Amino acid sequence: MGSGADVNSKYPGMPPAWGVGMTEAQRDAAYAQHTRQSRRLYVGSLPKPVTDEALHAFFNNAMVNSGAAIDPSGGPPVVNTTITHEKGFAFIEFRRLEDAESALMFDGIVFNGSKLVIKRPKDYDAARNPIWAMRGQAPPQDEVKLIGEELPIGTIIVDGKEVKIPLPPPLPSEWPRLPRRTPNGPHKMYCGGFHPLHTDLQVRQVLQSVGELKSFAVMPDENGRPTGHAFFEYKDPRLSAVAEAVLTGIRVRNRRLVCRRMNPDAAPEKPGESATYVVPDAAWPLLEPASARLAVYMAIREEHDALARQEIEEAVHAEAARLARWDPDFISHKRVFDDACVFLEFKDGGALDGGDGGGGACGGNTAEDAAVRCSSGMNGRTFEGRRIYVRYLPPEGEEDGEAEAGEGTVAVVS
Q1: How far apart (Å, rounded) are the C-alpha atoms in residues 330 and 346?
Q2: Which residues touch 120 (CB under 8 Å, ≥6 apart)?
Q3: Which among 308, 245, 293, 256 is positioned nearest to 397, based on CA atoms?
Q4: What is the reported pTM?
Q5: Contacts of 144 (CB under 8 A, 6+ apart)
Q6: At what angle do helices 239-247 and 200-208 cross, to 10 degrees?
């Protein structure tokens, strides 16, 4: 049969002696049957008409395009789809246990005009799901979970003060209803970077990890589909700064989020005024793919002489090290693009105190994590009356010329 390690690698979650006396084909069949309950999901509220093939293709595409599929190179994540047409529901069977778990995030996704209900079947028993043995964990009481991989639950440091981030909010069925319109004002927030396949429910889960919401609006495109951009407001306005610090830079399905206040100096909305939704200028650069290389614009201007330019470059380097919590010796710097901006490149191994980058959002110890902390803290700040922009540059060898600071597109919604 082989060693226990062989069993664990090919048949995850099974005890070392499992399958003794079976042929490989028998073990494969037995394992598939044993895990089938944990690899199936119920899909309700199907549109009419719908075919097995269309639903099958929709879920395969959604899993792969969103990054939810664990191993797309190994084959399509969905292996079987069975629709009960007269009752409007289906069962979808996934190739891997992890794929079935990931697919729960699509609860509420729209398919052919219908919002699908996706959950575990009634006969599902979490205690029999080998995925928990694989992870060395006890089965949870329920499987409603946040989609973020680095959500900042616990105590973090913001501006030198300890801030308590609460446990995830109650089950969705217990959440209060929120206005689907976020009015203009100094506490109006923006968060972007979500995949368009993420549902309103999943976006709200992430935002509520910081505190209770007062309003919440996910912006659709011209066809009514999600765009990955959300606008919201917390009941406690003090949480606005906390959300900026702890949500910016975290990963959600391999995408980094950006959270910014729309306009901290805005006046409260007047009666009858239309709510305006626009991606803040300070957020646009952070929505680009992250890298360990940054360009800092608007710190140096034409009127600066050679000495002033050198001093500004050194000041940017020092501030980058502080914001990133990174050893300055592991950050190279120079002036580029005819002295139009300061170039920074973070090197691995610079985490101070040998820690994990300081905790909180994006607390990793890679060079890219350090660059994300730096850009998150520096982008949009004011220096000598000018707003600084920080852009990610492609990895070395992939440069495509000088980047220009982007601007948001305004949409007005009453």
Answers
A1: 6
A2: 41, 42, 104, 143
A3: 293
A4: 0.56
A5: 171, 172
A6: 110
